[in-house]
């Protein structure tokens, strides 16, 4: 008799048979996380389709934003067009759809006939969400309601709904580390909308038998992001002579996570969802919080002219830390590959090259 290896010993590539032939629909999947996930799933043999109205951080918004620096505009346009080119080369379908409209999304479901659905639609920034709470609710909750309502009569064909939540649902950390059993205490529009999404997904699990997975990422960074997260803002500020602001000396801690690690964890969670009625929640992060000062030090090493400037800590600054990935490691075999020293350095070096390429393109024009 052959012993079955524990999940922690299952190599990533061995999951391909579990995803090959699966039809996976990514709602709001043309963004930073979504297009990277689509590429990862396609490489594993899944048939991937994206439904997105290209409204947030879009090519049109970027092209006509009057406040954009010319180099920044050129670089962002390249990032966005590169997303489309990579998706097309990978055979991923991109369907222009406004998921806030049930009929519009319904037509996509009829066309794609998904076996798994991943909900990613959202405003990517908590700061932007605070400015536009109505739009935040529409993009994060109305689209989710529509997706769940379209899944509900199809649970015999759709074995899993994955919802991308956020580490912000935990609120201020009371200790250095939180895990999935920590009671959420979300603050602000963005975090509360994410938590409401989690509750809605779990309600459809208990009421209607929808198989569900909730993913909580943290402090993401990686190629082709234009959401101005701190990891992107720091390297871009360094390249444009703007200071890298270190509040409280930069002692704030975040569980910085490279996009490739997040994709690995999400792909594992999709591949290993082995029962339609299963419901799981996973922290998918690097699993080790680092300080903002450490982040800035890597930027300074890659861009020596970077200006570091200390500021008093804002009173309302959230208190974060490490998200335990023990459950994801045990149940999914998730092991992140990219610590800050290698992952963020790789990203910074890529950003410098992309910025210089944008400059040269403008000079030629």
Written overview of the protein:
The protein is 45% helix and 15% strand. With 365 residues, it is of the alpha/beta class. It has a domain at 7-218 and 259-285 and 322-337: Rossmann fold, CATH 3.40.50. The strands form 5 sheets. The chain has a 7-stranded parallel beta sheet with strand order 3-2-1-4-5-7-12, sandwiched between helices. α2 runs parallel beside α4 and α11 (292-302) crosses α13. The radius of gyration is 20 Å and the shape is globular. The chain starts with 15 loop residues before the first helix and ends with a helix. The model has no long low-confidence stretch (mean pLDDT 92).
Name of the CATH architecture of the domain at 7-218 and 259-285 and 322-337 = 3-Layer(aba) Sandwich
Mind telling me the C-alpha Rg? 20 Å
In DSSP terms (H or I, runs of 4 or more residues), the helix count works out at 13
The first-level CATH class of the domain at 7-218 and 259-285 and 322-337 is given as Alpha Beta
End-to-end C-alpha gap: 68 Å
Structural class: alpha/beta
State the CATH superfamily name of the domain at 7-218 and 259-285 and 322-337: NAD(P)-binding Rossmann-like Domain
The secondary-structure element order is HEHEHHEHEHHEEHEEHEEEHEEHEEHH
Largest sheet: 7 strands, parallel
Spatial order of the strands forming the largest sheet? 3-2-1-4-5-7-12
Mean pLDDT: 92
The helicity comes to 40-55%
Spatial shape: globular
CATH fold node name of the domain at 7-218 and 259-285 and 322-337: Rossmann fold
Uncertain spans, ≥5 residues at pLDDT below 50? none
Please state roughly what percent of the residues sit in beta strands, choosing from under 5%, 5-15%, 15-25%, 25-35%, 35-45% or over 45%. Answer: 5-15%
Pfam family, one: Epimerase
Protein name: NAD(P)-dependent oxidoreductase
Pathway: Bacterial outer membrane biogenesis; LPS O-antigen biosynthesis
Organism: Marivibrio halodurans
């Amino acid at each position: 008799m052959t012993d079955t290896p524990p999940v922690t010993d299952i190599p990533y590539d061995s999951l391909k048979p579990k995803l090959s032939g699966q039809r996976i629909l990514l709602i709001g999947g043309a963004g930073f996380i979504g297009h990277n996930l689509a590429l990862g799933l396609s490489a594993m043999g899944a048939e991937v389709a994206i439904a997105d109205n290209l409204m947030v951080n879009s090519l049109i918004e970027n092209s006509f934003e009057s406040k954009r620096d010319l180099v920044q505009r050129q670089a962002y346009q390249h990032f966005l067009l590169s997303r489309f080119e990579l998706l097309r080369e990978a055979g991923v379908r991109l369907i222009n759809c406004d998921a806030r409209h049930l009929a519009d999304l319904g037509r996509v479901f009829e066309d794609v006939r998904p076996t798994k659905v991943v909900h990613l639609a959202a405003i990517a920034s908590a700061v932007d969400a605070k400015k536009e709470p109505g739009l935040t609710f529409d993009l994060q909750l109305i689209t989710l309601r529509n997706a769940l309502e379209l899944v509900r009569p199809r649970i015999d064909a759709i074995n899993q709904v994955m919802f991308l939540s956020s580490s912000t649902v935990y609120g201020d950390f009371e200790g250095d580390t939180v895990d999935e059993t920590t009671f959420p205490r979300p603050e602000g529009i963005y975090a509360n909308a994410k938590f409401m999404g989690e509750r809605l997904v779990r309600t459809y699990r208990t009421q209607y038998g929808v198989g569900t997975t909730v993913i909580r990422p943290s402090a993401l960074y990686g190629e082709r992001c234009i959401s101005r997260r701190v990891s992107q803002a720091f390297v871009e500020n360094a390249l444009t002579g703007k200071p890298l602001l270190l509040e409280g000396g930069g002692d704030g801690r975040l569980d910085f996570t490279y996009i490739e690690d997040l994709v690995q964890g999400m792909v594992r969670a999709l591949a290993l969802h082995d029962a339609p009625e299963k419901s799981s929640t996973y922290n998918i992060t690097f699993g080790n919080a680092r300080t903002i000062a450490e982040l800035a030090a890597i930027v300074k090493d890659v861009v020596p002219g970077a200006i570091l400037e200390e500021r008093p800590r804002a009173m309302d600054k959230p208190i974060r830390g490490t998200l335990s990935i023990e459950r994801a490691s045990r149940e999914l075999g998730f092991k992140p590959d990219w610590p800050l020293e290698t992952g963020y350095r790789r990203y910074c070096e890529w950003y410098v090259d992309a910025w210089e390429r944008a400059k040269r393109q403008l000079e030629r024009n």
